[in-house]
Amino acid sequence: MESTGVSRSWHFAAVFGALTLALGLARFYDHLLFHSITELFAVAVAASTFILAWNTRRLLDNHYLLLIGISSLFAAAIDLAHTLAYQGMGVLRGVGANESTQLWIAGRSVQAVSFLAAPLFLDRRLKPAPALAVYGGATALLVAAIFTGKFPACYLPVSGLTPFKIWSEYAISAIFAASGVLLYRRRSRFERSVYWQLSAAILLMTAAELAFTLYSDVYGAANVAGHLLRFVAYGLIYRAIVVTGLVRPYDLLFLDLKRSEERYRAFIAGSAEGMCRVEIEGGIPIALEAGEQARRLAADARIAECNEAYNRIHGSIAAGARMAAVLDTFEPGAAEVLDRFVRGGYRTDALVTRQRGTEHGRYIAGSLAGVVENGRLVRIWSVERDITERRLAAIEREKLIANLQRALAEVKTLSGLLPICANCKKVRDDKGYWTQVEAYLGQKTDVLFSHSICPDCARKLYPDYVAGGRLPSE
C-alpha cells in the first residue's frame, strides 16, 4: 500500500512538473495566455475545494477543510476579477495594472487569513451560514473599495509597486508562514501525505508572495516566478484536498473516524478475550416465530471476522464459516444456544459451554449480543473466554467440600447420642434398624474389626481352657 502511494506521488510529480515546464515555455509565446492559465487553474482548484467541503460539511470530522473551502470560494471570485482586470486583457473597461494588483492583494489577504484561522477549527465547529455571510460581506467591501478608488494604490505606471503593496506582500507572507507553523503543531490531526502536501503548498505560496515584492513590470521575471510557484502550490492543494477527498475520503474527510476504527481493530486484535463478528446476509425478520428465527440463524449466520484469541479457543476459523458449526463443537450445542439467544431478546449473558468428546473438555464462558436494524437481526457480536482451569478448579473444590461435609456429618453422628441395647449391645442406626455395633462402625468409618475374646469372657465361657492356662484365642 505504501509503495503504491509513493509511485502515485512520483507519477503526479512527473506529470505536474511537465505541465509547469510547458506553462513556463508558454509565457514566451504569450504572457497573457500564461497568466490566464495559471490564474484560472487556481480558480478551478479553489472552486473544487469549496464544492467538496460544502457538500460534505455535515459529515466532516473537523471544520478545517470547511473554512478553507468557504474562503476558497470568495478568494476564487476575487482571483477571477483579478484575471479579467489584468493589464492587456481588455475585458473590464476602465481598469488596469493597479486595480488588478489591488485585487491580487485582496484575494491573497482573504486566503492567508483563512489558512491562519483554519487550524482553530480542528476542535471547533464552524457555522456555515454565518461564515458565508462574513466572507461575502468582506469580499464585497474589498471589491467595492477597489473599484471606487478607496483602496490604497498598489501599482503605479511610473514607479511600479507601491510601498503599501510591498509591505502587504510581506505581511501576507508572514501570515502564510504562521499558518504553516500552526499546521505543523496540529499535524497529528492530518493524514501524513495530506499534511506534507498542504505544508509544501503553504511554503510555496509564501515564496510566491515574496517574489511578488520584486517585480517592477507586471510582465517581469519575478512576476512570472511568483505565478509558477503559485501554480505548483495549487497543484499540491488539488492533490491534498480534491483528489484525496474523492479517492481516499477516509484520509481527509473522516480521518478521526478512520483512526477510531484503527484503534478499535487494535483493541480487538490484542484482547485476551475471544471476539467475533457474525453477519447474517439479508437479515432475519424479528417478527418471525422464535423457533424459525433460531433455525434461520443456524443456516445463515456466518463468521465475518474474529481475533486471534477466538481462533485459539476454537481453532483456526475461516471467514464465512457457519456460526452453528462452531457452536456444535460445544455442549449444549447450536440449537439450544440459538433458541435461548432469540428468546432472551437477542442476548445471552454468562453462557457456559463445555467442549464435546473428552471427559472434562474445555469450558468457555461467553455472551452473545444481537444488532437489530429496520426490524431485522443483521449482526451478532460474540465475546468468549476460556475458563477451563477455573472451572476444573471449581469442580475439585466442590468435591472437596462435599467430602468434608460428609466427614463432618459422620463425626457428628459418632459424637452424638447413640442408642444401644442394654442386653445384646446392638445399636440403632439413623434409619431405625438395629445392628451389631461393629457393623455400624464399619459402615460409618474405615475401622476394621478382628474378633477375639477378652480374658473376663474367656474365664466365664471357657473355664476349662482358662484353668489349663490357655486362652481360646491362643
Question: Can you describe what's shown?
Answer:
The protein is of the alpha+beta class and 474 residues long. It folds into three domains: 2-254, Up-down Bundle (Rhopdopsin 7-helix transmembrane proteins), CATH 1.20.1070; 271-386, 2-Layer Sandwich (Beta-Lactamase), CATH 3.30.450.20; 419-474, no CATH class. It has 17 helices and ten strands.
Could you name the key traits of this structure?
single chain; 474 residues; Rhopdopsin 7-helix transmembrane proteins; Beta-Lactamase; two-stranded antiparallel sheet
Strand order of the largest sheet: 4-3-8-7-6-5
Q: What coarse outline follows from CA principal-axis ratios? A: rod-shaped
What structural category arises from helix and sheet content? alpha+beta
Mean pLDDT across residues: 81
DSSP helical segment count? 17
Through-space gap between termini? 100 Å
Instruction: Please report which band the strand proportion falls in: under 5%, 5-15%, 15-25%, 25-35%, 35-45% or over 45%.
Output: 5-15%
Reported for the largest beta sheet, the result is: 6 strands, antiparallel
**String of helices and strands:** HHHHHEEHHHHEHEHHEHEEEHEEHHH
The counted number of beta strands is: 10
CATH topology-level name of the largest domain? Rhopdopsin 7-helix transmembrane proteins
Rg for CA atoms: 45 Å
**Quaternary state, please?**
single chain
Percent in helix: 55-70%
In short:
With 474 residues, this protein is α+β, with helices and mostly antiparallel strands.
Secondary-structure topology with pairs:
Blueprint: H1 2-29, H2 31-55, H3 64-85, H4 97-117, H5 128-147, E1 155-156, E2 160-161, H6 163-185, H7 192-211, H8 221-247, H9 255-270, E3 274-285, H10 290-300, E4 301-306, H11 308-314, H12 323-327, E5 330-331, H13 334-343, E6 347-355, E7 363-373, E8 376-386, H14 388-415, E9 427-428, E10 434-435, H15 437-444, H16 455-461, H17 463-467
Antiparallel strand pairs: 1-2, 3-4, 3-8, 5-6, 6-7, 7-8, 9-10
Helix pairs in contact: 1-2, 1-8, 2-3, 2-8, 3-4, 3-5, 4-5, 4-6, 6-7, 7-8, 10-13
